[in-house]
Design a protein that fits this description.
249 residues, Rossmann fold, 10 strands
Length: 249
């Protein structure tokens, strides 16, 4: 299998605080991998390194074989077109309609006609089970609907990779299940690589091919769901059982 994202011996510090030290991870094309770990363990830093927002102090982050740290703004922008992101709170623009929210990355990165934009918006809303909601405002949407509009925006550019940042936070069980089903459906229908950052272990086990757990400033465990469940490592078992503090890292 070919890796689309690689972290190679990454060190990242903020002042005296070492967040990552010797962190290695390969993410393969077409898989769903879930990044887990306690509060402050580096999950958010991992996402920002992957997006090129942060640069590592040592080591390399590669996207499709290219070093992200070597990319200028233009190449970085081209790379980011290939990555869709569902933010933790959906991060919709309150003053824009559903249509305009989904159209935003299309206008930013492409030169589609208005008819083409309308068709893309329509098809992506249909994919996430929200046909006909183009003219609604974010204030009129439930929490679950906002997440689905956020997902429609994330897939609007037909990305190679979708990043899900705490996709089930704040959702009731029915909407949690719906979002998990959509993660699986997007992977199959769009043949994307999915990277899910979460502390919701039920959700993680329901969607993922592999788990990577951040602790001791690196990916201390990487393996399948079955390997995680049978791991003899106490910190992995404690986290899975919810005995460890969790939250945004």
């Amino acid at each position: 299998m070919k890796a689309i994202v690689e972290f190679k011996q990454i060190r990242k510090t903020f002042g005296d605080k070492v967040v990552l030290e010797g962190a290695d991870l390969a993410i393969y094309k077409g898989e769903t991998i879930t990044i887990i770990g306690g509060s402050g363990m580096g999950k958010s830093v991992f996402l920002k390194l992957l997006l090129g927002v942060f640069k590592p102090d040592l080591g390399d982050v590669l996207f499709d074989g290219q070093k992200i740290s070597d990319m200028g703004e233009r190449r970085l922008s081209r790379m980011r077109r290939r990555i869709g992101m569902l933010f933790q709170g959906a991060a919709l623009f309150d003053s824009l309609t559903v249509r305009e929210n989904i159209a935003y990355p299309l206008r930013e990165h492409f030169e589609y006609s208005e008819d083409e934009i309308s068709e893309i918006v329509r098809s992506k809303l249909e994919m996430v089970g929200l046909p006909g909601t183009e003219e609604m405002m974010p204030a009129d949407l439930s929490g679950g609907m906002k997440k689905r509009v956020g997902l429609a925006r994330a897939i609007a550019t037909d990305p190679d990779v979708i990043l899900y940042d705490e996709p089930t936070t704040g959702l009731d069980p029915a909407n949690t299940k719906r979002i998990c089903n959509l993660i699986l459906e997007m992977q199959k229908r769009l043949n994307v690589t999915s990277v899910v950052v979460t502390h919701d272990m039920d959700a993680a086990f329901s969607v993922t091919n592999r788990l990577a757990m951040l602790y001791d400033r690196k990916f201390g465990f990487v393996g399948t769901s079955d390997e995680a469940r049978s791991s003899k490592e106490p910190i992995v078992q404690n986290f899975i059982r919810g005995e460890m503090e969790t939250g945004d890292g």
